[in-house]
Amino acid sequence: MKASIYMAFHTPSPVVASAAIIPIHVGRAVADAPLDGMIGDDTGHTLSPYNGAYSELTALYWAWKNDTDATHVGLMHYRRLLDFSGTHPSPAAEVWPEAVRLDDYAAATETWLRRNAEIDLVLPISHRMPMTVDENYADQHDPRDLDFVEARMAQLSPAYLDDFRAVRAGRELLLANVFLARREIVDAYCRWAFDLLEALRSADIPRPHVSPYNARYLGFVAERLFTTFMRKYLRDHPETRVERVNILNLGRSLVVPFARGARFNDGAVNVAFTSDRAYLPQTAAMVASLIEHAAPGRAYNLFYLHENIGDRDLDLLRSLAVAHGNVTLHAINVGTAFSQEYRARHHAPSNATYNRFLLFDLLPDVERLVYLDVDLVLCGDVAELFDTDMNDAPLAAVTDALMTRVLATRVRTRDPEVPDLYAYLSDDLGLSDDQISRYFNAGVMVMNFAAMEVAKVGRELREMVAGNRYFFRDQDILNVYFRDRFVTLPAQFNVHNSDRGAYDNVPVPIRNDALAAKADPFIVHFAAAHQKPWREPDVEFAGLFWSTLARTPFWFEVLEATRRHHSLPARLSRPDTWKHGVVIAGRRLGRRFPALTPWLLRIYRWALGRFHWIN
């Protein structure tokens, strides 16, 4: 067997390639620019200019006409793969795996092809619909299409009429135009189908108000034709060796790697960040501030690792960059890969912050990128941070000034499992006093992948996550892993909006740097749980956050949530908000009467253990 399985792409997406799997840019004749690292469908015999109507079929037509060496020809596309090796068996035609490693998929497919060299045909499992094929098409598309094809079929190939009518009246369909078939089967199908499709494309059926979705009508008709052809072919050729497999739909999957090659290393500024839906408005504010200060003459790649955020919300986020041709937002759905890992009681419900450890697999060929938490606002061009002179250091970050308080005074936490923070840092994490004095905040980092064994580092960081109980989660892991192997950045690159009194027990040189940076911040980070301007109105730099958020589509959403959060009826009607109100009252009492603070903290710790509060 010499199989050529063409994988159709029309937009930058994760690419799988192997000896048998060949990525192809469909519609390249009418594209703004060719996609990197793949052939196009615009050479030789081609339908590339008509890709808007034919969709992925321009790849099939190109393969049929131009690939004369393959014994087997197949078609897949960037979101739909054939599960040759049966890794995700299901009675349904399509399955949505949580994660797919493309290198593993390619290797398993190559192994399957070698072991099944005598196969004639690989088809997807039939999809069964709640209505007939005819009703489904009429509901979604122009019903005149199938009527025209049937009339044309009666003229050109009447032997298929009964099967076509049976398919239209039935409920089963072979989805997505994906398959693998022996050359002679492909030849027979393409000769028959493309004659009918070209007749339909040339037909006098006005489409003055067609949507982009329905502009691909020939691809939808082809699913009905392919189902018809295979129904008849398998009846006429019962000796055919056929395999039925599932379709892997990657639309909701964590797909690694996201990108291969050096296309992000041409001087562009690469920035990564992650959140779930709860922090999407804050993400938008951060992105708006980044774009506002971005240099117009430089390219910026923004990699947003999100947790199953819907298309509409992602479109709203992308709208921030529409007027900025030098900024590209790459939304990468990573699902909830770390949802079951340890979370200390004082932390928010989401473990999305761990998602940064997926970057090593998602972007293995990127040489450098900046990682930013989403609860921050930039006051300068992130390119200045990206261009930091790091020599061979793998990481650069800012000292977490408030963490160094443990060197000057005893710091208790709200978690009964970590009663003394210094003991935790020194005994549990194994950090020396000198390392604690340089303990960095992981909300702003420059990651120098060129100085790392990327795959090894990513694997070891994820291994540290699994089954372990780090109080500050990924931040602790990074400080332990990169101890003594990072560059300390100036304090203005990560200025926390904590009250100035919080720095009273910070060692003097670190305190002075942190407070001086507040006067001229490059990045303002709303890091502390009780210093979030969308929760508390009287926090430092709140105006900066709100003025930035006001330039995004999410301003009113946050405003309404904040208003409800601070309204008395809502506070009384929602237990979690009521408990938060008690915390606020206690904090304000402690500010007014500092002598009461130790007693208030004892009461709070008792209540935390007694009622299992999470704040």
By DSSP (H or I, 4+ residues per run), the number of helices equals: 22
N/C terminus separation: 61 Å
Q: What's the β-strand tally?
A: 24
* Fraction of helical residues: 25-40%
Pairing-aware structural class of the strands and helices? alpha/beta
In the predicted model, the low-confidence regions spanning at least 5 consecutive residues are 568-579, 608-615
Largest sheet: 7 strands, mixed
**Global geometry:** elongated
Q: Mean of residue pLDDT?
A: 90
- How are strands sequenced across the largest beta sheet? 3-2-1-4-11-8-12
Please indicate the percent range of residues in DSSP E strands (runs of 2 or more): 15-25%
The gyration radius over C-alpha positions equals 29 Å
Outline:
The chain has 615 residues and is an alpha/beta fold.
What does this protein structure show overall?
The protein has a seven-stranded mixed beta sheet. Strands 17-16-15-18-21-20-22 form a seven-stranded mixed beta sheet, with helices on both faces. A three-stranded mixed beta sheet has the order 5-13-6, with no helix packed on it. The longest helix has 20 residues. Strand 16, helix 10 and strand 17 form a beta-alpha-beta unit. Helix 5 packs across helix 7, helix 6 packs across helix 8 and helix 7 packs antiparallel against helix 8. Helices cover 38% and strands 16% of the residues. It contains 22 helices and 24 strands. The chain is α/β, with parallel strands linked by helices.
